[in-house]
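Batch 3, record 17
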Amino acid sequence: MTDHVELRTGVYVDSVSLMQVSRTAAAAPGVDAAQVAMATELNLEVLRGMGFDVPAASPNDLVVALRAADETGVATGRAAVDDALAALRSAGTSAGGFGDAPPPRTLGRAIDAVGANLALVSVPGRHAAVEAFDAIDRGVSVMLFSDNVDVDTEVLLKDAAADRGVLVMGPDCGTAVVGGVALGFANVVSPGRVGLVAASGTGAQQVMALLDAAGVGVSHCLGVGGRDLSSRVAGRSTRQALAALAADEGTDTIVVVSKPPAPEVLADLEAYAAGLGTQVHWATLGAGRPDLTTSVENVLAALGRSVPTWPVWDVPQQPVARGSLRGLFCGGTLADEAMLVAGEELGDGRGDIRSNIPLRPELAVGDDLRADGHVVLDFGDDGLTRGRAHPMIDPSLRLERIHTEATDAGCGVLLLDLVLGHGAHPDPAEELAEAVRSARASAAASGRDLPVVVSLTGTDGDPQGLTRCAEALRSAGAAVFLSNAAATRRAVSLLPTTEEA
Amino acid sequence: MAGHVDLHGLLTTDPVVATAGAGLLSDALRDQAVVVGEAQWQPPPDGSVDPLVRVMADRRRRDANALALQRMTAAGADLVDVRPAHEVLGLERGTFLHAGPPLEWERASGPMRGALIGAMLFEGMADTPEAAETALAASHVALEPCHHRDAVGPMAGVISPSMWLYELRDEVHDHTSWCSLNEGLGKVLRYGAYGPEVVDRLHWMNSVLGPLLQQAVRAAGPIDIKAIIAQMLQMGDEGHNRNRAGSLMLLRELLPSLITADGSSTDIAEAVRFSGANEHFFLNLGMPACKLSALAAEGIPGSTVVTTMARNGTDFGIRTAGTGDRWFTGPANTPEGLFLGSYGPDDANPDIGDSAITETAGIGGFAMAAAPAIVKFVGGDVPFALRTTRTMYDITVGEHTAYQVPILEFRGTPTAIDVTAVVRTGILPQINTGMAGRVAGTGQVGAGLVTPPAQCFTQALDALADALPTPAAG
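Prediction for the assembled complex:
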């Protein structure tokens, strides 16, 4: 085995493109493993974890790490990396000659060039505010897909935006639908008269998918960022989004979707919404509050629509004798909801749920993300996406963890989510089904039955196809639910009824 | 928080989306048939991230920069007089002005030293170059940037008290600027030559050319220099290194009153021949016109617009609208381009001259697309000239209202360099320039292209961040 690590300075490529470069290089003949990434602390950690010897580097350096059978393999891999990087560049530069202007280098120039009325920022978090201010200055609303933007900057951005009469959707806003256009991660839903304000990307996707299954369409889904309903941000964007949707002639009913909000912020917003003259439903998660599925059912009841039987693609599953719940999520809100639902189902005394986004601080897992007992992890959390693409695009970290859980006798039931739609991996079900199949096989090889439950958020209009994905997962042995709450309940129902000593 | 509940119509118009970041997200939009403008984003230098965020967050910046651009493009530039420096600048004997940021003799480059020596000989303050050098080394002469007196000088830019200057007025903002008379090409003081022919020519300019031009300007003036710049850009000049059309137009304005001036016909003939033979006759009018434009943008709190770019042959210096008189300097780069005769890259001095005021005001390198023939002089090819102008829009606040580029559909030239945009993109202002010989006394060795050192802009950005008002509590 031959390792090759090199640093390249003055080259910046976004993490999504680099993931594609890594894949291309890894597929080259003789190459065993390939990682091409910006040299962020997280990525260097991943490389060290893979056993590479990594030199000191700055986050603006590009690191190329190859493991191959021999020197020929390394050379082949390097050539593959060079070709893939060159292909990215030539795709980005429009043809030369007299006709075409060089591509704009800042968001502001890009706005000027096409007369944009909306900006989408997905540069690394520490650089995101600069681009966002550029758009706000031009009187253009911003969807801030980037995460790792600090909360003080978020408040500055939102105040500046309010002054200019535009909206900051984000930071860490994965999902929005504006005028029928899906931005970031969003499902293809039919047009309708329900407007969403979403402090949660996957939460909003879950709500839209359930509404779609019930035959109810959506006018707009305005993301506001996961922290908007925190005490510090105090619902700045939610307030603007509520006012805009209330004033929108195409919207009759508003649903606010959020992770657990700060109580006083929620109370203020409820009071504000009461004066808008449009009915507002609050699908805000929290202990003792309805889960997202129940919230959607309440919205349907208020609209006078019947509640359908939520789709399930089931397989026979038997309770396990031992082991805990292991939930591996790409969607933060889906993970949140799973912990809330599972917590209620488990009741007191059957074990707390440890997490990297814990419901209570004392339930936090360490940096190794390992704990005995019930564990629910969010692979889309800031800490796991520095210099990496979101797991809905690059599922490798989670796939690795599924593999690990399969060989862990402490893992009783595996609960996974899969989110379809624009922006997500073009064919995520095949890879996940393969991981489920191999996890179940390796558990079986050590004498365990490993039930797998998948919460699948999507619509039949999605490019990946809801039914096709569900069938692929079912044929791998997983029980598949459209409702995340229902999936969680199934998973918990398979756990042993008494806690192990 | 009043107004615009509807987010400028966001929910009722079809989205047109500008993106910066992951290409996959742009592709997903294109798949939905959305018009997408994609920025080719690159990270700024590590140390500049924090000041960039702070300066970009400054609520004053947008309006301050818009005001800077408005003033720069509104500034007038009328040639009103020609007078000796000691009369107009209050330049006392024993003080010389020079190009670029402040400089001491010890750090002065060859051509700057040569020009200062020449000025000593011309002013009669030394009999020999050696004596001049000794006096200069002993600090018998005070050195001061031209810019500190609202004047500009090409290349070494040395102005001594006896030299005659063009005087230009911006009546809109009530500003005045000055520049020396152009000596022609070859062995000239501004390129650091100080031989007898150089000093003799300076004496002739003082005794014959200056007084004749004074009479001509007073009789014909005021002459609208800004209008000539606007026209010359449509005739293949860029106003820094190509001034052919501008020089002819200026001569056309001056000739009638020049030939009827009170002087001997021999002197008048020689003045006309000298001016007409000089392709850069106009440069010394274009520069102070640009200086007036830049002056109009000075002193705007919160503005990140560059108001000065100047080089003294050792350092490159810039100043900004939001940071007053403070210079931000770095070692001047050496231009790359084409060389005269047998000269080569080793003969070239680092970048020198106040003439980068033209780029500061939106012409010169920034208007290269208007002057494709320039590439025969400074190097590069025609697509490069077009690309250069188009790239400069990425680092400027807006477009000039009077200066236009025909081949770009008469688009205004990129004007008002924004420090934040330079640091964000890493794109440096493109300057067209002459090259002086590195050794004192050589003169011009070529012409070419050069950029400022990036550190001028990162330093300016840091200072702009430091100058931010303390945020109100809460």
